[in-house]
Predict the structure.
Amino acid sequence: MASDDISRSFLRIRQQSLAACERLEIEDYGLQAEAFTSPPKWHLAHTSWFFETFLLKPCLEGYEACNPLYEELFNSYYNGVGGQYARSQRGLLSRPTVAEVLSYRQQVDRAIIELLDDDSHPQRDTVLQRCRLGIQHEQQHQELFYTDLKYSLFANPLLPAFAELSAGWRPPIFPAVEQQWRQYEGGLFEAGLPVDAVDFSFDNESPAVRVYLEPFALSNRLVTNGEYQAFVDDGGYKNHQHWLADGWTLAQEERWQRPLYWLDRDDGGWEFTLFGLRRRDPHAPVCHLSGYEADAYASWLGARLPTEFEWECAARKQAFTPLVFDADRLNPQPASGDIPLLQLYDACWQWTGSAYRPYPGFSAGGGAIGEYNGKFMANQWVLKGGSCVSQSGHVRPTYRNFFYPSDRWQFSGLRLARDV
């Protein structure tokens, strides 16, 4: 990617973050319902902190930080940078104000463009590489903006909508699609990417790894609300036989009876969405499942979750169909407008049965920036695909999303797999 292209991409992504906030009220910027969520204002500041910390301070001569205390307030988890303000208390940061955070973003944006315009910079390659990483990092936080805000709004008994239909927003429409199984021969498969094989990839996608796959089959679509309702009706949350031990214990402790955001009332099934409370669509992919719930459902049907390598193998066997993020619909569509036989990139990230571990030969980068992915490679599961809040250009066959199997607040669903 050329320097001018990076500058344009940087400004476009930064503007997207601001555009997402246009429907917020000032009171919304500090919402934080749980420790695992972050307020919208914090996301705006942290993404600026990332560019400031890893690009401007080490690479732009004479750069003066907006406020030295921001280094701690908006540091997420980088121990190599220094201390971090308690994650569970980010909602208490009424200061800096929203206006001050927006001013901070403007200062960072101007300085980044100045840095990118310097074609003779002695660290030119490092500048471009880290700017690409910062752009992808901000896209990740654009997803988190929606997931975190949805969870915090759901904590309000008023169940307020983030996007009102009267403002021109349209909820996604899901046609009924017959389930079919796509079979794959298996064999030796190369997953991941060679280091520096593409313009950008995260370090956890490399190096390429060769794995042997037994013949397998994947469902052509995600599990739907209606199908998951059958699991609930059959006592799926009351029968331990379908559950992993840790998942069963957690489901009992948290009194799970249905997916997050499902509400059952006398007049039928409802679901809380970014458009507010809406009738539950039986054809829509079931969403906001933990990995444990996804695994239990698959077990109930006599199927299983795919491995990350099976999923990637299927993705490589067909033409890559990227998502086009339509901010007015919060619903991804295939770029061509055609639905392929196997719609891999869909409304939800898809749980796999693979543990999030490094590929053989992986080595985390040096310094604080090396903490980006490597230190989280334990006790989490890999998710593949993308979701309705994934940005266009931010999904690919090798992308490895990861969360703890107990997490439900992400836009996560499941696709079934089985042995052949």
